[in-house]
Amino acid sequence: MVPKDRKIRVVVADDSRTALRAVCSYLQFEGQFEIVGTASDGLSALHQAERFRPDLVLMDLSMPQMTGLEAATQLRKSFRDLRILIFTELNGLSLRAACLQSGADGFVEKAACRKDSWRKCAGFLLTIRE
After folding, report:
1. Distance between CA atoms of 25 and 22, rounded to whole angstroms?
2. CA dist 82 to 104, 111, 114, 120, Å?
3. In 10 A of CB 17, how many CB atoms?
4. Fewer beta carbons within 10 Å, N or C terminal of the chain?
5. Are 85 and 113 in contact (CB under 8 A)?
6. Can you name the residues that pair with 59 across neighbouring β-strands?
7. Rounded to an integer, what distance in angstroms lies between the CA atom of residue 59 and that of residue 11?
């Protein structure tokens, strides 16, 4: 849990520079998040989490070197209290189940974030607070 008097520390990972910038811009606009690291692949996301010890890792499912699923599994083994949210262009119940089984706390379709704005996504992210 994150105290209400400090920002939620986040590592964001996506192999699309456009998506990475968009997510970071939204989180900074929201005002309750501090981007402590970014990554363009799953292995780098893992290293960023080890280095910065964020409250949350927000990462794409499909990335080079290590997928979001693989990274979530490793992150969960190393950081039990870390919140992990996987977001992707893909959809499907079996994919959602695989994400949750890998250790992720949530799964969000990128299309849903665009359609419903990031408010719904931010609502999930803010559940980290006490």
Report:
1. 5
2. 9, 25, 25, 20
3. 10
4. C
5. no
6. 13, 86
7. 8
Name residue 25's amino acid: S
pLDDT tens across 31-57, in order?
A: 888 999 999 999 999 999 999 999 999
Instruction: Pull the structure tokens for residue 27.
Output: 């989180």
- Can you give the pTM of this predicted structure? 0.84
Other Cβ atoms within 10 Å of 95 Cβ, number: 16
**55 vs 28: CA distance, rounded Å:** 15
Identify any residues that bridge with 34 across adjacent strands, giving them in sequence order.
9
Gap between the Cα atoms of 11 and 52, Å rounded: 8
Q: Give the whole-angstrom CA distance, residue 93 versus residue 24.
A: 27
Residue for token pair 């996301």? 45
Q: 8-13 and 83-88 as β-strands: parallel, antiparallel, unpaired?
A: unpaired
N-term to C-term CA, the chain: 5
- Cα separation, 35 vs 125, in Å, equals 13
